[in-house]
Amino acid sequence: MSEADVDRFVADLKSDEGLRDELAGHASGIGSIVAFATDKGYDITTEEASAYI
Q1: Around Cβ 31, how many Cβ atoms within 10 Å?
Q2: pTM score, two decimals?
């Protein structure tokens, strides 16, 4: 778990159109976004993602 990973994930989304497009096909709520990020190698929890929002 790392707030740094949340920040890195958000930064990567901002700079990587392919990652954004891929996420758009999977995002249906905070849980699915966290699952997507975890599958991509980011160490993020639902609590950390919720706190970021």
Answers
A1: 11
A2: 0.86
